[in-house]
Sequence to fold (440 residues):
Amino acid sequence: MPLNLAIIGAGSRFSFGIAGDLIRDSHFSGSTLALVDLDERALDTSTRIVKRMVAESGSDLLVISSHHREEVLSNCDYILNSIAVGEPFARERDVAIGEEHGIYQPTSQTVGPAGYCRGLRVIPHAVEIARDAAELCPKATIIDLANPLAAVCRSMIRESGLRVVGLCEQWAVTKRFFAKVLNVDEGELDLNSVGTNHLTWAIGLIHEGQDILADLIGNLHKPENKALLDEVPVSARIYHAFGLWPTGTEEHIAEFFNYFLTPQTKGGSDLNMSIRHVTEEQWEARWTEREGWASGETSIDDLLGPSGENAVEIIAALEGYRDPINEMVNIPNNGLIDNLPDEAIVELPARIGPSGVEGIKAGPLPRAVREILSSRITQQELQIDAALSGDRRLALRGLLFDDQITSLDVAEQILDASLKANDRYLPRFRQRMNRTDHPE
Fold:
């Protein structure tokens, strides 16, 4: 049965991967894909690219587009949220503000002051999308791809009551590393990784029916494997400190702690990490590349290949187009991790099929790891409250939970600088401050 799907934030490259995956799966024949973006250039370019993909593949996927989501959400079955607000240069400003205080942020997608302030910009828009969906298509499932993913998912669920599933593939970086250590194909491994998005922890690694995680880590520390261990200095140090191996990229993991991204490590460069920057020239080069895809001047063969993302595969499983699958998802805890709050968004394996997304019970986590995650969960709730209210005091309170913040004074200086630098993307804070400065 044809479905109605919408990608909100269609200027994201996720749009092309999702479209390509839909095109290759015949079960989605006759379905409608709506592209939505507030940015005129982004929407026009993405629409032309996706329509070209459909035409060259011979697919009968119907592609429509709109600047106004309310025009396409009625009777929508799945909404894929991939919005970004003020990117990439709002992020560049926030990263620069942090560096003025000796704080370095390689990804700034989730935590660190720049990751936190990203959430202040994104969460209000995500909640508005969810509220519109609750009114126009209350049976829809939202698949969130936008960062900070856990906070965005939590805000949408909390404020709309809809089913929201967050997806991220960063944990699989560790699965690939473990496969390299074992010299096996990663498809032979089943990694059980749980926690919060961008800070998950390996609690099992199945190979040929056996849990080999402890043996693998033991072998990794043998002298002959020093070169491999040196590839993951952050993960190795966190493992020795807390007793579980963290999963994901070194950069993402490092941002959750105040040990690695310091002036003493040259912002992490001594640990083979680098700060991701986007220049005006790089940003314009991206548009040039996309215009080539849109106009037909350059090949789109790569766009028509597998995306490596699992959103379409999950939709196919939910619709019964394929057998149930196990995938990593971000969903409300609801007792899956015994010693974390039920409402917290946790990342862990789930069984996915026509009956829904059923998280796989993980049990309790060690006390130290639980406390690390609990702090992040508390920060996310404060971040959501601050983002929706525009309350600077709440925003400061949430920022103070960040491990990279070195003092109360620094937190206030960073927050105020970010609110000023990205004022146009934070109208709730501006309006509230104006009311405070000029009481009625």
Remarks:
- The longest strand covers residues 199-207.
- The radius of gyration is 22 Å.
- The chain has 16 helices and 13 strands.
